[in-house]
Amino acid sequence: MPGYSTNHAYMTEALALARRGLGQVSPNPAVGAVVVRDGEIVGRGFHTWAAKDHAETVALREAGVAARGATVYVTLEPCAHEGRTGPCAEALIAAGVARVVAAMEDPNPLVRGQGFAKLRTAGVEVEIDPSFTQAALKLNEPFVHFMRTRRTLVTLKAAVTLDGKIAAPEDNSGWITSERARAHVQELRHQHDAILTGIGTVAADDPLLTDRSGLPRSRPFLRLIADSQLRLAVDSKMVKSAQSDLVVVTTSAASKERREALERKGVEVWTMDGPGGRTDLRQVVARLAERKYLSLMIEAGSKLNWAVLEAGIADKVFFYYAPKILGGMQSLPVAGGAGMKRRVDAIRMRDLELHSIPPDEFAVEGWVVKPEWS
């Protein structure tokens, strides 16, 4: 297609800039922009929540007067509404750019297309490059999902053996996957707003469940524990490290004294009664959406993993596979519980993606087929 080679190079650069903002933009999308004049990049920019300014504004500032008559390549439709900053579409018009090439429209149904319309009305040429739309969608999956559904994107993560086991019946010291795979998990955590585990995992492993990527974040990594009876120990690592970033989800059957003890330690307690005396996971996800936590990662044990799948709240899975086999009837599967009684009722996946983790591990990422996809 005309202009493909130049579009490709500049949009690739814009996407690379946008990725630098991952983990630093929520609840906003990660956006990158480059300003090109006479075949040269004269301005670059990407958005972070702390810096406030959007990618286009940063790139225009760097370009200065060279922006007049230039082409701007941006990974998302420039905004046309007033928020924490002024509309980017107006900034582009004021700078005198001649052309804007975007990877995708804004997924917000209330504003989609308005930025493009404002630019066109002002005489700016607008183009959407479809060859980069999928990459732009992937870059901002939680944001796109939230704008389309108003729901938090929930990803079930697990480290499993080739035969689908996550724990042995006796000694569970050591790791299923390699250090390299676990480093990848930290990257995945960094890209999420929140993480949920069960009290069984906390009691057995006493984890911290923090974002250990070492990269800056736009907001604290929210840690949640499903604990219907409030068994969480006040001297656990998670409680000791709580800094307005720890939530325990319980039921009305839990002890008032234990609740108050946890709250004195800075732990937020949510009471959400669900079926069978368990916490209501659907309510948890709804509360996160209300607070604009766009993505939730589940790292739990076999029982809670099944509860997540059974409740229908999992949107995606991200399973890390190690070249090992545990076997046995007592080794715990990735999802226990009652399970499905018939093969025809199996939870199905779509759009699977394989991630190689050299030398001999891999991860499977995929979307859970919901009723609307059946």
Summarize the structure.
The chain has 374 residues and is α/β, with parallel strands linked by helices.
The strands making up the biggest β-sheet line up spatially as 11-10-9-8-12-6-13-16-15
Unreliable spans: none
Mean pLDDT, to the nearest integer, reads: 94
Distance between the termini: 35 Å
**What sequence of helices (H) and strands (E) makes up the elements?**
HEEHEHEHEHHEEHEHEHEHEHEHEEEE
Largest sheet: 9 strands, mixed
Number of helices: 12
The rough form would be described as: elongated
Beta fraction of the residues? 15-25%
User: Can you count the beta strands?
Assistant: 16
Oligomerization state: single chain
Alpha-carbon Rg, integer? 23 Å
- Would you tell me the structural class of the helices and strands? alpha/beta
Helical content band: 25-40%
